[in-house]
Amino acid sequence: MRIGHISDLHVLHLEDVNPLDFASKRLVGGINLLRHRADAHSVEVARHALARLSELDVDHICISGDMTNLALPSEFRAASKLVAEIPDAETRVSVVPGNHDYYTRGAARERRFEQHFQPYLHSDLPAYQESTGYPFVHFREDVAIIGINSGVPTPPLMAWGKVAENELRALDALLSDPKLKDCFKVFMIHHPLLPFQYAKVQESRHLVNATDVLKILREHQVDLAIHGHNHHFSVNKLPHLNGSGDLYICEAGSTSNRANSLPEFAGSFNIFEIEDRELVSIETHIYDGFEDTFVHWKEEVFRRVLV
After folding, report:
1. Does domain 2-301 have CATH number 3.30.10.20?
2. What is the pLDDT of residues 204-254, one digit of tens each?
3. What residue ranges do the domains of the chain occupy?
4. Sheet holding 184-188, edge to edge
5. CB distance 306 to 65 below 8 Å
């Protein structure tokens, strides 16, 4: 099975926006957009990524949050329209929210993300979902894709996240279900599980209870954790707590980024090849602004598949 991972699309859509919408944390975010981000992210670059993933025959696409910039209704409409363009999206897409999707208390209270991406948030084991809809699990062949929310409204200039305690307990129970025993387990979250080496102040953007999340994942022998948030490609691994096997922790970068020439920060996506409940390879493609397409950058192969 081939799973594509994209993240941090930051769809910007300011048409029909009321100036009063910026009478909040969005004022700081709007200034940041004007200074840095407005030209950095492109819906067309995201479309190029989805087209390339289709050409590369991925079976499923995981999106690890920050679909929007300012959690505006117009941005959610544009972002959900983009995802709906994926063929058979309702059965081929899993998505979780990021901090920008919970940018204001109003967006969180109105559950704008969940309203617009509801088709991709159902669970094949709904008994473990809290009233918020998380965690969920999607079974695809012998792969279990588990999604959880780490987005919370934060003060200006803060971008940290946290998994709610009740959702953390539900995650522990879900991973204990016998139906997951013989599956390759993929865990989706927006915030990183490990410290980011380029962060000037870790506390402003970290996952508050990352240690608790990692303990659960390692105890239950989760195979792969994918996240976003840092806009930086990375592959790390930690041993399972029982001493058998490893948890791979991977970030795709910001897929829609068209403004960075450094490969690690360029627009990118990952493809995970999974065969017989093992991770075979991680293939990374980055955006080439000159060719206006995504090109192969690197690949990590863990075992060869005999054809």
Report:
1. no
2. 789 999 999 999 999 999 999 999 999 999 999 999 998 789 999 999 899
3. 2-301
4. 136-140, 143-147, 184-188, 224-227, 246-252, 233-239
5. no
